[in-house]
Design brief:
By secondary structure, the chain is mainly α. It has ten helices and no strands. The termini are far apart.
């Protein structure tokens, strides 16, 4: 089944209504909203680009679109509900098109007082991961924690407390490099 192409418009009001509807369904960054609006206008024309910028400016002026609020809410949600580490949140926000200085401020405020080891243990509990029995399970837990955005120091601290042998730890350490 193919999806129909979005209806092209040259009306600022129609584009604005679509943008408000998209923001009503889910909070979006400026870059994400621009990506959604471009297929609805002749994006390669100057008029289409101007139309998108007008709608974005109007939404910012009304307070519907704010990357700083978006980054703070996103970071807080990912920390509280998903139990992800700082690095994962930073990477995800970069993918969503949020500027680096906005990301830095938001993540610093949300993760400022967080104990990374405690958060990693909460992540392991959420994923129902238990003490590894062999090298394969240790490597699996190590990789999963890396993908979740935790630092190598934190991960190795947890694995050492679980009495993972030194050979496995050195093999995992070489995997980082």
């Amino acid at each position: 089944m193919s999806f129909p192409r979005p209806k092209k418009t040259d009306s600022e009001n129609e584009l604005y209504e679509y943008a408000v509807g998209a923001l009503g369904r889910r909070m979006l960054s400026v870059a994400e909203l621009k990506r959604r609006l471009r297929p609805r206008v002749e994006a390669e024309t100057e008029y289409g680009q101007t139309l998108v910028e007008l709608v974005i400016r109007r939404l910012k002026d009304q307070g519907y679109l704010n990357d700083a609020r978006y980054a703070a809410a996103y970071s807080s949600f990912r920390r509280e509900n998903e139990k992800f580490g700082r690095r994962r949140v930073i990477t995800d926000l970069k993918i969503k098109g949020v500027h680096a200085e906005v990301i830095e401020k938001a993540v610093a405020s949300v993760y400022g007082e967080v104990n990374e080891e405690r958060l990693a243990r909460e992540y392991l509990k959420r994923k129902r991961l238990v003490k590894p029995k062999d090298k394969k399970q240790s490597a699996r837990i190590f990789r999963q924690l890396m993908r979740a955005g935790f630092g190598a120091k934190t991960i190795f601290g947890i694995l050492k407390k679980w009495d993972v042998d030194d050979d496995t730890l050195s093999a995992l350490e070489s995997e980082i490099e």
